[in-house]
What we know:
Blueprint: H1 38-58, H2 67-97, H3 102-119, H4 124-129, H5 134-143, H6 145-148, H7 151-158, H8 167-193, E1 196-198, E2 201-203, H9 205-210, H10 217-233, H11 235-256, H12 263-269, H13 273-286, H14 288-301, E3 307-308, H15 326-340, H16 342-353, E4 357-358, E5 370-372, E6 381-383, H17 390-409, H18 421-424, H19 426-441, H20 446-463, H21 465-481, H22 488-503, E7 507-508, H23 521-525, H24 531-548, H25 554-563, H26 570-574, H27 584-604
Amino acid sequence: MFQLPFPVRDANTSAGGEPLGNLPEWNLDDLYTGQDAPELKRDLDWLETACQSFATDYEGKLDTLDAGGLLTCIERQERINQIAGRVMSYAGLRYYQQTTDADRAKFMSDAQEKITNYTTPLVFFTLELNRLEDDHLDGLLAQNADLARYKPIFDKIRAMKPYQLSDELEKFLHDLGVVGDAWERLFDETIAGLTFDIEGDTLGIEGTLNFLTDPDRAKRETAARELAQVFGDNVKTFARVHNTQAKEKEILDRWRGMPTAQTGRHLSNQVEPEVVEALRNAVVAAYPKLSHRYYELKRKWLGLDVMQVWDRNAPLPLEDPRIVNWDEAQKTVMDAYTAFDARMGELAHPFFTKGWIDAGVKPGKAPGAFAHPTVTDVHPYVMLNYLGKPRDVMTLAHELGHGVHQVLAAGQGEMLSSTPLTLAETASVFGEMLTFRKMLDGAETQDQRKVLLAGKVEDMINTVVRQIAFYDFECKLHEARRGGELTPEDINALWMSVQAESLGPAFAFMDGYETFWAYIPHFVHSPFYVYAYAFGDGLVNALYSVYAEGADGFEDKYFDMLKAGGSKHHKELLAPFGLDASDPKFWDKGLSMISGFIDELEAMEG
């Protein structure tokens, strides 16, 4: 068993040592019972053979297939995706439970390498598919309803047609993907291995970041300065990772002829660049009436002349610092889900009873939270780092929303279940909103209402303002990297250029804050992912306003939207609610909800 060379807090207690109750752990047996499970070897052997026979049967022949033949071809590829996805889900989830375990890291790396090697012969499929004439493919789809169901997949693949390289180069790049993954692993392992000294206790990054929400300002400052110190000590490694990843992306984009660094993300999100631009511009224009205005209020509440970065997520002076144990968190979220619709509660229930959630903070466990859909014939798994804060309850509501969405979308099958990132945040943010409204309705005093409203506004600012500032930072980073290698100081300067603009004049920035870009995993794992959070929040705010107005049949329409997975475009999915994300006024509708909450908080000041 891997042992850490320092004491760690028990996973079932909060930062202050209060008991959190029985925190659930994953049971990954529904994927495989162990890395030596015979079923795992069987699936890898099957995968190797299936990929070879698929290439033998179809390479160079896609243009000769009739509608039935193309359907069989797609169904075979879907099965290959399912088995490969099952193997990688198991290897990845096991690794994220303990990223510092060399055995788990090796197992994941070996599995990734095998699957990359096995699936290299399949690269021809999308290349040949994109060489089919539009009329020919349309004719096949018209002949077979089962094949026509896959049209969204064909559309998504063919959107890449203008950026496709030669067959030989595409195979080379597919093989080379393993090398890019190694930089991501270096980042993950470096982050997970960082240690921070907080008043004599040695903590990992998750526990240290948690101190930024401590009621004691001195502790918040200590944590912020210790984070800055450790990030600064490791900044060369983080700068190397970002330089390499951004350069690799620039080379790929240049060879593919993509007009911007963001083009690939927009294509995979199935969202038009002008829609993202409208969202970005609406949020930036709203900074003064959102974050600037709210943080000015918070500065007064905290009794400060100027706020430091360690005050951004500080609890309010009148906030009850009590810890929410796991049972209470579960009940709060389940009650909110069930009150919306009993079906939602039924879908959420197994997550708590069947080992689908891993909640405790543990040595080497990946920081943050996520819901991983695995494959459509298993079920999702949710990861949390639960420390008993009210915001952790919101994180549970958020990730459980993803889980429910993934369960509902699984009926679409392996290829159509995956939702574009812009819509993937819908159910999660909606789940948060349901939980928030339930808690707000239960507020017994004006102070409780104020704390809940302020907490929600802060979460929305973190989701919308902060993520759009992150997006601007990434845009600047990738643009600057095209001009040459970036020093850590160059990256620091880009980071600071978006911070003051987004947070506003209530803030001062300590020395060392310029390195806080270093720990954000999305920049490394999923360039330009971050705008999806703002997209999702704006979309849900607009959706929730339709629900709050008592629209007929809202619940059924909502479930239909989640069940659609990736089978429909955002325009189609939102039309039943009378909403359209390509209308610039759509974003103002969502932002006005946040602004309205701030109005209410200002009114409470009397």
